[in-house]
Amino acid sequence: MISNQILQNTIDGLKGITRIDLCVVDIEGQILASTEKQPENCSEEVAAFISSPADSQVVHGYQFFKVFDENQLEYVLIAKGSSDDVYMVGKLAAFQLSSLLTAYKERFDKDNFIKNLLLDNLLLVDIYNRAKKLHISTDARRVVFIIESSREKVNGALDSVRNYCGAQSRDFITAVDEKNVIVVHELAPNEGYEELHKVAGGIKDVVVQDGEDIHVALGTIVGEIKEVSRSYKEARMALDVGRIFFSDRDIIAYSSLGIGRLIYQLPIPLCKMFIREIFDGRSPDDFDEETLTTINKFFENSLNVSETSRQLYIHRNTLVYRLDKLQKSTGLDLRVFEDAITFKIALMVVKYMKYMETLDY
């Protein structure tokens, strides 16, 4: 369960303090970590020690210690020397390894629990029972962040987020695929959405690397642990909707998706029927670049003709001519609020349909 690198770092640190060489072997006698450059092969001695009832033993000038995980033998620790000082260091090292096993097992169990919770793989009764066993609060306010990275592997991003959140954090950091890091964030008493946007910005800053495209999405705040999966699904939707309609945003919240959230849930056949009704078989893609720029700028300026013409550096009458031309071809007058709303929704529906087509391939 513990990586060989962690074992090596642990005994290197102990040797640095005690100046006593240590070695960790598994129950098959294979050396997992050692402070000696060329440790002796002691598989026979290890096998004999494992079969004996003793928890520690001196063999040929070495102290042997058994390291247990809940009464299950996991490792044999070997300390070089037969003095009382070496025995004390060996006992301390064995205790340290045993504590590491417990800590990593608890972390592994919590990580599995959080993954299954996010993916709705747990019954309601199991959620509360396992949360109680793992000492996880069931009624804390939480929200789910999803950090989407363009890296092929998320290991580096996971480490960056863990370092940012800190060892004492009550947040859970995990991953369920190779692109996204998930943070189940526990809110402070006075923390709200404004503060969460700052947290999201901080996470993005520590994860981003040169030339990397990072997006952070967050769901809504939930008050019970059983609702964490809902916040996760909302964050996933926010990622997709943001990719379609808000590509210029690095941080997107489910609560700010607006009409994009509604369009995202429409069936494609209904979308196609709507576009046929509005554009009579045409598509906004058929409009020239000038017309599309005029339309977008007109919407940006809340249908204000004067301000739009000023920002486009054209005469007011030129803008009116373009709008009249658009009205003749589509039957929609963008100066009329109802027609403008219909046209805006149609543009968003077309964006959604084009995005779904890319997924089909």
What does this protein structure show overall?
This protein is elongated. It has 361 residues and is an alpha+beta fold. The protein is built from 13 helices and ten strands. The strands form two sheets. A five-stranded antiparallel sheet has the order 2-1-5-4-3, with helices on both faces. Helix 1 packs antiparallel against helix 3 (84-118), helix 9 crosses helix 13 (337-360) and helix 11 (305-312) packs across helix 12.
Gist?
By secondary structure, this protein is α+β, with helices and mostly antiparallel strands. It contains 13 helices and ten strands.
Question: How would you describe this structure in keywords?
Answer:
361 residues, 10 strands, single chain, alpha+beta, 5-stranded mixed beta sheet
The amount of beta strand, in percent, is 5-15%
Strand order of the largest sheet: 2-1-5-4-3
What value does the average pLDDT take?
Answer: 87
The residue ranges in which pLDDT falls below 50 over 5 or more consecutive positions are none
Our measurement of the CA-to-CA distance between the termini, rounded to an integer number of angstroms, reads 40 Å
Indicate the percent of residues in helices.
40-55%
Number of helices: 13
Order of helices and strands: HEEHEEEHHEHEEHEHEHHHHHH
> Largest beta sheet, briefly?
5 strands, antiparallel
The tally of strands reads: 10
Please identify the structural class as seen in this structure. alpha+beta
Alpha carbon gyration radius: 31 Å
Shape: elongated
